[in-house]
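Why do we bother with a discrete structure alphabet at all? Because it lets us treat a fold like text: something you can write down, compare, and reason about line by line. To make this less abstract, here is a complete entry for V-type proton ATPase subunit C. Read it the way you would read a sentence in a foreign language you are learning: slowly, and without expecting to understand everything at once.
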Amino acid sequence: MTEFWLISAPGEKTCQQTWDKLMVATTRTNNLSVNNKFNIPDLKVGTLDVLVGLSDELAKLDTFVESVVKKVAQYMADVLEDSRDKVQENLLANGVDLVTYITRFQWDMAKYPIKQSLKNISEIIAKQASQIDNDLKARASAYNNLKGNLQNLERKNAGSLLTRSLADIAKKEDFVLDSEYLITMLVVVPKTGYTDWQKTYETLSEMVVPRSTKLLFEDHDSGLFSVTLFRKAIDDFKHKARENKFTVRDFQYNEEEMKADKEEMTRLSTDKKKQFGPLVRWLKVNFSEAFIAWIHIKALRVFVESVLRYGLPVNFQAMLLQPTKKNMKKLREVLNDLYKHLDSSAAIIDAAMDIPGLNLSQQEYYPYVYYKIDCNLLDFKV
């Protein structure tokens, strides 16, 4: 399970007592969850008005930063293409896996100084997340263009003989070049039609050079034949070939063009390899930054919501629960029994219930402060 429940409850005589009660209720006899204390430092409280406003802003910021984290993770998976199984080992926070980071969370005093106001800290995070989001768009766009151009060229050199580029098949010696009167055409013939081709190609139109056909290349369905004829017979030959289910490819042997195509492919391939390493490094660093910022927002939200609900002086215990999947419903019931005295009106309101005038921002409401953290950040299972 990569889902965590970050909750808080007011301190009893001490916060340790709150923690001990939770441990007894959820782990002593029934192993409903694996629990860790979630350490939030003494942040500056500010005024009630500021806290109420901040509560809404942090909810929006939480959603935005989570989306940035997911975008960076998903793009990492896209860039790693064939090594998608390696994605998870690159998605680290501060050099450790995500579960370890969350369960051993320590506030980063250097990045988010606690002497600053809560609003300032949230603004630092918002600015940082926006920067990562904008940088990702720019880097992804540049890399995707390169990758797209390369794929287009690769696609040209693959697929059916009816559509693919013939530049890597055609050789100079297969063509009559620099002739005023003669031209070599390339014709795609279905494998079932080889005999018909050999019997009929000389008579498809006038002025076809006898015994000039040669099989140059075969794929699964067809063969590519060359045939030489007089230039003035081109249109008639194409028309008659089509009637006989032979496809004349519009191809002129041009060494300069073919060389330019090969050079372009080599250049794009080299550029892609050059960009790959730095891009993956950037994604690793900025995934870590975004994820750390996201968990700090969760900490800010718990702090703000706990002060708003439980009052001053600040006295609450934040706790991180990792529920076992089969016991989630039971865990919810146990927590409700444990904390229902905190808010007698809080019969559990589920996010799916629409209560007019009560905007819960799609967040379930319980008698205790609750936020979900889901570490499964990718659309596919790695």
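What the structure line is telling us, in plain words: The longest strand covers residues 182-190. The two ends are 14 Å apart (CA to CA).
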